[in-house]
Amino acid sequence: MTRTALALAAGLALTSLSAQERPHAFVGARILPIESPEIASGVLVVQGGRILAVGGPDTAIPADAVRHDLKGKVILPGLVDTHSHIGGTEGADGTAPIQPDVRVSDSVNLRSASVMKARAGGITTVNVMPGSGHLLSGQTLYLKLRAGETVDALALGRQPDGSYLGGMKMANGTNSRRATGPFPGTRAKSASLVREQFVKAQDYQRKLKEAGDDPKKRPARDLAMEALVEVLEGRRVVHHHTHRHDDILTVLRLAKEFGFKAVLHHVSDGWMVADEIAKAGLGSSVIVIDSPGGKLEAKDLRMVTGAALEKAGALVAFHTDDPITDSRWFLRSAALAVRAGMSRKGALEAMTLNGARLLGLQDRLGSLKPGKDADFLVLGGDPLSVYTHVEETWVEGTRVFDRRDPRHRLYAVGGWGASHDTANPSHLMALEAEEMHQ
Amino acid sequence: VTRLACLLAAALSATLAGQSLAVRADLLHTAAGPPLKDGVVLIQDGRITAVGAAAEVKVPAGVPVRRAKVAIPGLVDGRATVGLAGLLNQPHDQDQLEGSAPVQPELRALDAYNGRDPLVAYLRSLGVTTVHTGHGPGALVSGQTFVVKTDAAEVTRGVLKSQAMVAATLGDGARAREAGKAPGTRAKQIAMLRAELVAAQEYARKAKEAEKGKEPARDLRKEALVQVLRRELPLLVTAHRAQDILSLLRLAREFDLAIVLDGGAEAYLVLDELKAAKVPVLLHPAMARAFGETENLSLETAAKLKAAGIPFAFQSGFEGYVPRTRVVLFEGAMAAANGLAFEAALEAITLAPARLLGLADRIGSLEKGKDGDVALFDGDPFEFTTRCVGTVIGGVVVSEAELIREPLR
Fold it and tell me: DSSP letter at A321?
C-alpha cells in the first residue's frame, strides 16, 4: 500500500516535471496569435513555460514533444482581465478616503472558488483590485492564474525591491463620495483631496532625492508616500475607476498635472468623450454590462464604448469587475462590443494584448509569439460564439483548467458546491467514486 | 366637428387594434413548429392572419413587407421588475418593494408601473414585447404582478392582465431587516403564511355565510389572499434553497394553492418533487450571480428541467445594482449554450412564459389569431454578436435598432 502510494507520488512528480521540461506541441487547431495573421491549421510549440514556435502545418515539432491533436479547436492567447475582485479581496477601510499603503495582496484568498471560475473562463492574467468607495483604496496585484493557492505562487512578478507587481486603485465620481466622515462630499472636493496628497508626495519625493545616499537626511519613512512616489515615477500605474464623462476628463487632467500613468476603468460615458481620451493617450479598461443604470453614474453606460474608443484610435481593453460580471463569460464582453460596432480584430486584441499593454506587460503576455509566456486557451469553436466553451486553459505551459475533468467542469457550469471556497470534500469524493465506476 | 371626431375615433381605434404588416424572414421560428425557410408572418389590424412559406402566404396590396434574416415571436419576459425598479436606482424610482410590513398582497403592480422608464424601451429594443412585471422578491409577500406590452407608455392600454400573481419570498430574502422583527427565521415565515391563509379562509367563510347586510367589513389584504386561495391568482414564490422549495410544496398542498416557483437555484436537487407537484418554474436568469442562497446555481438547470418535463420559462428577475435589468434573450442564449436545445431555449423566452401566464392564446408564438408581436434579427438571435433589427408589437414597428449605442431618453 505504502509502496504503491510512493510509486504514485513519484509518478505524479515526474509527470508534472516532464510537463515543464518536455516540449508540448499543439497541432491542427485554428490559431489566433493576435499579433500576426490567423493560421487555419497551426502548430504551437511550448517548453519551459514559454512559447517556442507558432506557425503553419510545416512548423518543426521537436522529436520528444508531447503531441496534442487539436483539429477542429481554436487556440487563443490567455485572456487578460484588467480589473477583477476574485479572491474575495478587501482594500482600504472606512477611516480615510486615501490609503496608498494598503495592499490587496494582504487580503486575497486564492482558495476562493472565484479563482477557479476565472481559470474556467480562460483568464490567465488578472489585475486584482481592492474594493470600492475610496478616492484611493490601495495597491492592486497582478496575478498569473498558475496552479497554486498562495500569492507567492501566483504573483505575476516582483519589482526590484521585492514587492509584488501591481498598480494603484483610484476612483472618482459618486463612488468615493460619502455623506459623513473624512470622505469628500462633492466632485471638486474629491479632486482637491487627491491633488493635496500628490503635492505632498512630490515634496516627499524631493526630500528623498535631496537626501541622496545619506540616511540621516532622509525623511521619516512614510509607507503611503512611498507608494505615491512609485506612482509619480511611473513605476505603479493608476487604475482609475471613472464613469461619467466629466469625471473621465478630471482623471485626464490630474494625470497630466502630476505626470502619472493612468488607465481609465469602467469608462461608462467613454463613448461621449472618446476623442478626448484618445488625444490624452490614456488606455481604457471597459466594462460591458447587460443594461445601463443601477446607479446614477452608469445611467448612460453603453455597449458602444469599445467601438467608439477603437474608432477614436484609443487603446481599449475589457474587464470583468468580477463579481459584477462573471469571469466565466468574460469572452462575452468582446462579442457584445462587436454587436455594438467594434471590429472583431479589435475586440479580440482588447481581450488579450491590449490588456497586457495596460498592465505594461505586452512584451511577456497577450499574444502567441516565440519567447512569450505559454498562456493560451483551447476553445471548442469561434471565440465570439455563445456556443463555444473554454475547453482548456494553459498557464506557462501547464494546464490549469480542463473541462473534461468533472471537478473543473463543476466550476465552469455551476452546481452543488461550485461556489464553496474550497470545494466540498464529500462532493469531490462522490465524483471520484463515480469516476471509478465508469 | 362630428366628422373630425369620427376620424379621430377611427384613427384611435386603428392604433388600439394595431396595424398591418408582413414580416418575411430567411428563417422564421414560430415557436409552434419547425422553423420555416423564407417564411412570412402576415399581420392585419394587429393580429396574425397567416403564417407560412413565402410562396404560400399572399400579402395583400398595400401591406408593407419588412425583411429580416431571422424572425421569432416577440419575447415574453417571464418575471421582471422593470417599470417598478427604475433605471437610476434612486429612492424616487424604486417601487418594487414596500418595506412597511412583511405581508402586503393587496399592492397592485398597475398602481406603480412606469411604462416610460428607459429600461422598458431598452428591453423593447432587444425584442421583448411583453413583460410579466411587478413587485419584487424581498418580503414574505411583497405584492402583485401584472402583464403588459412594452409599447404601453401608460397602463390605459397594453395591459394583458391587470392582476397576474401574488409575489412571495422564502428564505434569506424574506428575513426581516431589523432584529426582533418578524419573520426572523424560515419556520416563522411558513408559520406567518399559514396564519395569513387561515385568516383569509375564515374571512371568505364569514363573508359567504353572512346574512345580507351583515357581511364582514372589507379587508383588501384578505381579499387578495382569497383570490390566491381560489387559485384565481397563483402564488409566485421566490425560493432558491432546496429546503425552501420543499417547504413551499408542503404549503401549497396544505392549502391547495396554485404556485409558481420563482428562482429555484437548487431546483435540480428536487426535480421529482417539483414534477409530482406539477409546479412550473420561472427559472433564475442563467447568468444570475452565484452567491448566498444562489451559490449552487447551475447553467444546466434549464436543460435538466426540460429533460424532466417540468414547465419552465426564463426571467430577467430583479437586480439590486448593475445590471439594472437582465435581458431574457441573453439568458436564453446561455441556456442554449449549456445543454438546452435551441428550440427549447427559444420556447423558454416566448411560448413557455406565455403558457405560464395563461396567455398562450394571445402571445408567445407566431400563429394565426395571435397578437402580431415579432422580433427581427440579423442572424442567430442567441449569438451575442447578432443584433435585434426590429421589434413589432401588434403590427407596429416599435423599435428599429437596439439601444446599445445611443443614450436612453
Answer: T
DSSP element (H, E) containing B22: strand B21-28
Task: Give SS3 for B282.
Answer: strand
Query: What does the block give as the cell for A214?
Result: 545619506
pLDDT tens digits, A187-235 = 999 999 999 999 999 999 999 999 999 999 999 999 999 999 999 999 9
How many Cβ atoms are within 10 Å of A97's Cβ, its own excluded? 24
- For residue B323, whether the previous peptide bond is cis, meaning omega lies within 30 degrees of 0, is yes
Q: How many other CB atoms are found less than 10 A from the CB of residue A203? A: 12
Establish if A240 touches chain B: CB-CB under 8 angstroms: no
- Read off the C-alpha cell for B182: 418578524
Chain-chain contact of A290 with B327 (C-beta, under 8 angstroms): yes
Cα dihedral angle (A81, A85, A91, A93), rounded to 10 degrees? 140
Residues 6+ apart with CB under 8 A from A426: none
Cβ atoms A148, A217 nearer than 8 A = no
Size of interface A-B (CB pairs under 8 A): 131
Contact present, B127 and B386 (Cβ < 8 Å): no
Q: How far is CA B299 from CA A218, B302, B338, in A?
A: 58, 7, 6
Edge-to-edge strand list for the sheet holding A262-266: A136-139, A168-171, A238-242, A262-266, A283-287, A316-319
Is B383 an 8 Å CB contact of chain A? yes
The residues facing B130 across adjacent strands are: B76, B149
**Contact between A339 and B330 using a beta-carbon 8 Å cutoff:** no
| Phi and psi at residue A146, to the nearest 5° | -65, 165
In chain A, % of residues over pLDDT 70:
92
Q: Chain B closest CA to A245's CA: distance in Å?
A: 13
Q: Quote ipTM for the complex.
A: 0.94
Q: Which of B295, B326, B334 sits opposite A419 (nearest CB)?
A: B295
| φ, ψ at A158 (rounded to 5°) | -130, 155
The structure's pTM equals: 0.93
Q: Quick check: A384 and B404 CB within 8 A?
A: no
Distance CA B169, CA B248 (A): 10
Cβ contact (<8 Å) for A340 and B319? no
Question: CA B118, B95, A324 angle in degrees (round to 5)?
Answer: 65
**pLDDT tens across B230-246, in order?**
999 999 999 999 999 99
DSSP character for B205? H
Alpha-carbon dihedral angle through residues A137, A139, A143, A147, given to the nearest 10 degrees: -80
